[in-house]
Design goal:
Structural class: alpha+beta
Helix content: 10-25%
CATH class: Mainly Beta
Strand content: 25-35%
Largest sheet: 7 strands, mixed
Distance between the termini: 37 Å
CATH superfamily: Hypothetical protein
Length: about 190
């Protein structure tokens, strides 16, 4: 039995965009995926992430879901913490959810986008992932919809409500900053 076959039909799935190969490599090799807090879906405590590969991928890899990743945890951090070499990025200090992922699971047959090329986050179940022949068949519209929403509400209720608080202004000694500027912290 494959890892995909062993997943329960009722497992909750968040379909998420993977904008480019670098982000897929981060998920595959480093085991995490980022979602900006300001555009995050209401519930991220789901079982799996379905990785939708956009048009920036090679022609045989684009506009499809080929990979699932089990979500094993999440934390709130900043872009600067995620990408220490991009401290001058315009969104360096913005908050992001960092989803910790288990090993990626390749779908037996990729799910092509069909007419749906541009999507945002949405929820589904493994049952729908197994049955889908294109992306438009993933949203839950049938009798399973109340069950999906009840499960999402339960997960949201179990999770802690998060309110972003402004970071305090901390004055830094210019001499200390000058001293630290010569130290390379590298990637941790």
């Amino acid at each position: 039995m494959s890892a995909f076959d062993a997943i329960e039909d009722t497992s909750l799935v968040l379909v998420a965009i993977v904008p480019n190969q670098k982000d897929l490599d981060i998920a595959r090799l480093l085991g995490w995926y980022r979602i900006p807090l300001k555009s995050a879906p209401k519930v991220i405590a789901v079982d799996y992430l379905a990785l939708y590969q956009t048009g920036s991928f090679a022609s045989h890899e684009r506009w499809q879901i080929k990979w699932l990743a089990p979500i094993i945890g999440h934390e709130l951090t900043t872009r600067q913490e995620l990408f220490r070499d991009q401290s001058d990025h315009p969104r360096a200090h913005e908050e992001y959810f960092k989803l910790q992922l288990g090993s990626l699971i390749q779908l037996p047959v990729p799910i092509p986008a069909g007419k749906w090329k541009r999507i945002t986050f949405f929820y589904t179940t493994i049952r729908h992932v197994r049955a889908a022949t294109d992306l438009s068949e993933l949203p839950v519209h049938d009798q399973e919809r109340p069950v999906l929403w009840a499960a999402l509400r339960e997960r949201a209720a179990r999770g802690e409500a998060y309110q972003a608080a402004p970071l305090p202004e901390i004055p830094l000694d210019p001499a200390l900053l000058a001293m630290l500027s010569g130290i390379s912290f590298g990637k941790q």
